[in-house]
Amino acid sequence: MIRNQVTGRHVIRTALPAEAAAVAGLHARARATYYPDGVPQDGTDWLAGWRAEIERPDGHVLCTVQEGRIVAIASFRTARDAPADTVKLFQFHVDPDHWRTGLGAALHAACVEQWLADGKRYASLDVHVDNERAQAFYARQGWVPDPENPPADGDHHLFLRYAVSGE
Known about the structure:
Layout: E1 5-7, E2 10-14, H1 20-31, H2 46-55, E3 59-66, E4 69-77, E5 86-94, H3 103-117, E6 122-128, H4 132-141, E7 144-145, E8 157-163
Parallel strand pairs: 5-6
Antiparallel strand pairs: 1-2, 2-3, 3-4, 4-5, 6-8, 7-8
Helix pairs in contact: 1-2
């Protein structure tokens, strides 16, 4: 497990349960950027959701801390319906005030390091079709459309795959 990976002016480490509110706030700010009509209000309690995610024994939530503030987060685990050698990246967000600073690439590299340590061969994710910035970021990191999971008509997400060991 990654513990306090210091890179330049920031630290990448496992998020703590007491940081759930900060993580949920960053998540909300990042999501708001790709919903043209505002983030859908579906009744989800994101604070409770992030608290549970951080405390999951079978998952990881990494955060990037800069000057005492969480500025990027990544949440991943083996999904119930996925092969054991595949990890699912559920959430990956960089605070919009820190886009294009290299924090996302550094956090992604830390995720890959953890996936390799966990013996994962592949990673999967889904990204909102309107989130072109994230799609471009993932493409730069080496993610490709998942050939086993093409989007269905009317689907609001694209499904991507990543070869963890660079296969």
